[in-house]
Specification:
Largest sheet: 6 strands, mixed
CATH superfamily of the largest domain: DD-peptidase/beta-lactamase superfamily
Distance between the termini: 69 Å
Number of domains: 5
Low-confidence stretches: 52-57, 59-63
Strand content: 15-25%
Number of helices: 22
Mean pLDDT: 89
CATH topology of the largest domain: Beta-lactamase
Number of strands: 36
Length: 861
């Protein structure tokens, strides 16, 4: 597939020096050779500055040629890089200076020098870039033309580095002012002039990729060689991948623009095994000037948001932290002095203790900042440099914001970093060029086998990948159905979004391919709120990956089993919780003599920030003897202690002494009088009676049926009249009585009985009219009026009404009627919460017999 053809035919129009405006000449002289009118073709100071000094410093030689030398190099000599060729250049330059005057040499230069593509000479450049004759060129435009010869592709207004071109233009205008070619007013006017470039129309496929390749070639071989050599450049681009990527962007990007005002998108995909660039979409439309489509976002600096988090956690895992390591997700001020730095999570929520796995999978910001501190900012940046990043040069400026995208990265390098993860720690340089052949088919250059170099052990990467590929782990933040998965294979993925919605990312990889997508605006304006990576970038990434990965066999990620670990928080857990039963009266440990009424179960937990347990320089070693010596300790500890208090945990030391308020020497004695153990009970109402005594006297007797308290008697002889719950089945049951003195010293006694009550004697002819059994009642309709009908009410003395909640086995009496009529209207429902309730009555007949009626069940919602 032919992507682009560089035509060797030169586009050149000769122009006389007197027809070239002075400011066009001056702009070139100001930037290229300010001593042009004083030297003799060679600038010995320039040679010293650009050739000799750098070599003495162990650095490569720099530019520094005079205009005459540049003319000789481009018009007479080849681009061969050798000392012999350089000496020829010096000799010819000196000879030309002897034979021609300065204006003639300047005319030669301005008619010969390449300005990009097949454009040679200043007249052709004026027509090509501005659609006008050189005579009409302004100062601002002259500075643009003067900026181009040093890097025609790098500084091309149609390329991805337009910002560099404008910066160089402004610099040239400053030089013209400094060298007194123009006035301050002219300089200001030139800087303010709006530049209008001629619309470019070329037959070019994958233009951002082509320009990227061309810039690499020009840096290595020079613009003239590329224009005139007739070479065939064989690239790594897979046209199927490129078309699939463009199709995904074309389908999704319009919706992003309409909904979120996201005008642009970029995608890079790299083959994991070879490091080859398979697809590169620098902007969604190279020829769309409204979005600065010529800008190649793939090689531009953009803030990565949370897509940097995996590298931070990777470094932490390498140091010994684990997916189960616990961090507190609590708003924390990480600044010990100056302005506070208090990052928040995307949803402004705090989740308390979370594991590193939960934090990374859910892209939580606060634990990520803590992880960066534990891993070390400088250590993470050193690792990132080994992963191929070239932009992380100012760690002091980023600080802890690095993990939230506070630095800038290039999409191409970012994707290659994720490809390094896919290779389990083997870094390979990205390669857009596979081979160069001359016009005769002979190989000029060929890519070597890209074996790469190991920059990280496999184990921590496998740990990281297990998190990035676990969809269930991130479901609490992204939902189960998201764009970070593929239907037929494992994939590891991470989103990224800057706080102000200027950049949205989705980065991901399989064992075969790594792909990254960026969405945003080239002018760095904000998208609408909600334009997160998972929303605007992930659909593009997912569509491309679903389609393109079909060509690869399915492979699964390898796993790594972590060894045993017992270090607090590093290995999981938040302090050791101890539940202890305490005697409320004495505040000491409960004993067998402490009554249940005075027992309180308390949870003691020794909870601290992780910095309490680790030395960040040796996380698996011994902690600091005094954690207060750790600069961040108190900043992290303060919100943790507030959380502990809010959760109700007790952090003080639990008591060690036992309850001495309740004295076994003062225990009461108790025995059952009625019924007796094993008695058969046939009546629905009977008396519970015990005989009890105590050194301090009896304060009360509590009675229980099957461990459910049914009543308390406070007065001697402490009898209790018990009516059987209508839902108590016939058969064996247990009665318990507990005798208390005035200090709650106690003794209990339990017997068993056999319940054998005739069910027919429990029924009474009372009919529930409203509500009916099984009705559902809205909580908004309570309290309500219950309606019942009674046959022969003259035979009834009294009716007591009760309800029983499914959440509580205790019966609640709420009203009575004495004596009843034929129609009853009974209010019910005050202070009732949603739930299932049983409603029943206890009827006292004319002979004082207590009878239970059938119950109904209602559901309150």
């Amino acid at each position: 597939m032919l992507l682009y053809e560089v035509h060797g035919d030169e586009n050149r129009t000769l122009v006389n020096i007197e027809d070239i405006p002075e400011h066009v000449k001056q702009a070139t002289i100001a930037i290229e050779d300010k001593s042009f009118y004083s030297h003799k073709g060679i600038s010995f100071w320039g040679i010293l500055r650009s050739q000799i000094v750098p070599r003495l410093q162990g650095k490569p030689a720099q530019g520094g040629s005079t205009l005459t030398q540049q003319f000789v190099k481009n018009a007479i000599l080849t681009n061969e890089r050798s000392l012999a060729r350089k000496i020829k250049e010096w000799i010819l330059s000196w000879q030309i200076e002897k034979k021609f005057d300065k204006d003639q040499i300047l005319e030669f230069y301005l008619n010969e020098i390449p300005y990009g593509g097949a454009v040679y000479g200043v007249q052709a450049a004026s027509e090509y870039y501005f659609d006008k004759s050189v005579e009409e060129i302004t100062i601002a435009e002259a500075a643009i033309l003067a900026a181009l010869p040093q890097g025609p592709t790098r500084y091309s207004p149609y390329g991805s580095n337009k910002d560099l071109l404008i910066g160089r233009q402004q610099y040239i205008i400053d030089l013209m002012l400094e060298q007194k070619y123009i006035t301050e007013e002219e300089a200001e006017a030139a800087k303010a002039q709006e530049l209008v470039f001629k619309k470019r129309t070329e037959n070019i496929k994958a233009p951002h990729f082509v320009m990227y390749v061309r810039e690499i070639l020009e840096q290595e071989y020079g613009a003239t060689m590329i224009e005139q050599s007739g070479w065939n450049i064989i690239t790594s681009l897979d046209w199927e991948a490129q078309e699939t990527a463009q199709a995904a962007i074309d389908e999704i990007a319009p919706g992003n623009m309409e909904t979120y005002e996201a005008s642009n998108a970029s995608l890079v995909s790299i083959d994991v095994e070879s490091g080859d660039i398979l697809a590169m979409i620098g902007s969604k439309d190279y020829f769309d000037d409204e979005i600065d489509g010529q800008v190649n976002v793939a090689t531009s600096n953009r803030q990565p948001g949370s897509s940097m988090k995996p590298l931070v956690y990777l470094k932490a895992f390498e140091k010994g932290y684990r997916p189960d390591t616990v961090l507190f997700d609590l708003v924390t001020n990480f600044s010990a002095s100056g302005d506070p730095y208090e990052p928040h999570n995307y949803d402004l929520e705090e989740r308390g203790p979370v594991t590193m796995k939960q934090a990374l999978a859910g892209s939580l910001n606060i634990p990520a900042v803590k992880t960066l501190y534990l891993a070390g900012v400088y250590d993470v940046i050193d690792m990132a440099n080994n992963f191929g990043y070239t932009t992380l040069t100012d760690p002091d400026r980023y600080g802890l914001s690095l993990v939230l995208g506070g630095a800038e990265v290039k999409l191409l390098e970012h994707v290659n970093s994720y490809a390094t993860l896919a290779r389990e720690g083997i870094y390979k340089d990205t390669s857009p060029i596979l081979e160069i052949r001359d016009s005769d088919g002979e190989v000029v250059w060929k890519k070597d086998d890209n074996k790469g170099r190991r920059v990280m052990d496999k184990e921590p990467i496998r740990t990281l990948t297990s998190i990035l590929s676990d969809n269930s782990a991130r479901a609490y933040a992204f939902g189960e159905n998201n764009y970070l998965t593929l239907p037929d294979r494992q994939v590891a993925a991470k989103t990224g979004t800057t706080n102000d919605y200027r950049d949205a990312w989705l980065m991901g990889f399989t064992p075969n391919i790594a792909t990254g997508v960026w969405v945003g605006n080239n002018d760095n304006s904000e998208m609408k709120r909600g334009a997160a990576g998972a929303v605007v970038a992930a659909p593009i990434w997912n569509k491309f990956m679903r389609e393109y990965t079909k060509k690869y066999d399915i492979q699964n990620f390898k796993t790594h089993e972590l060894g045993d670990c017992d270090k607090p928080m590093v290995c999981g857990g938040v302090g050791e919780e101890t539940k202890i039963k305490i005697d409320k009266k004495s505040g000491k440990l409960a004993t067998e003599y402490t009554p249940y009424t005075d027992i309180e179960e308390r949870s003691y937990r020794d909870v601290h920030t992780i910095l309490h347990y680790v030395n960040i320089n040796d996380p698996l070693g011994e902690p600091l003897s005094d954690p207060n010596n750790e600069p961040q300790y108190n900043l992290w500890e303060t919100p943790v202690l507030a959380w502990v208090e809010e959760e109700g945990y007790i952090t003080e030391e639990p008591p060690t002494e036992y309850d001495d308020y309740h004295d076994p020497e003062l225990q009461p004695s108790i025995r059952w009088v009625d019924p007796d153990n094993g008695d058969n009970i046939t009546q629905s109402n009977f008396t519970l009676r015990v005989d009890a005594d105590a050194p301090r006297g009896i304060d009360r007797i509590e009675y229980f049926v099957d461990d459910q308290k049914v009543g308390t008697s406070y007065n001697s002889p402490f009898d209790f009249n018990y009516t059987i719950n209508p839902f108590l089945s016939n058969g064996k049951h247990y009665l318990k009585a507990i005798a208390f003195d005035d200090r709650d010293n106690f003794k209990e006694k339990t017997i068993s009985i056999n319940l054998d009550v005739d069910i027919s004697n429990r029924d009474f002819n009372i009919v529930w009219l409203e509500p009916s059994n099984g009705d559902t009642i809205s909580i908004d309709d309570l309290p309500m009026t219950m309606r019942l009908s009674v046959d022969n009410p003259e035979n009834i003395k009294k009716i007591d009404f009760y309800y029983l909640s499914s959440d509580n086995d205790n019966s609640h009496w709420f009203t009575y009627v004495e004596p009843p009529g034929e129609n009853l209207n009974i209010p019910w429902g005050t202070d009732v919460s949603p739930g299932i309730y049983k409603l029943y009555m206890v009827v006292k007949d004319e002979n004082n017999n207590l009878l239970n009626t059938p119950a109904i069940i209602v559901n309150v919602e």
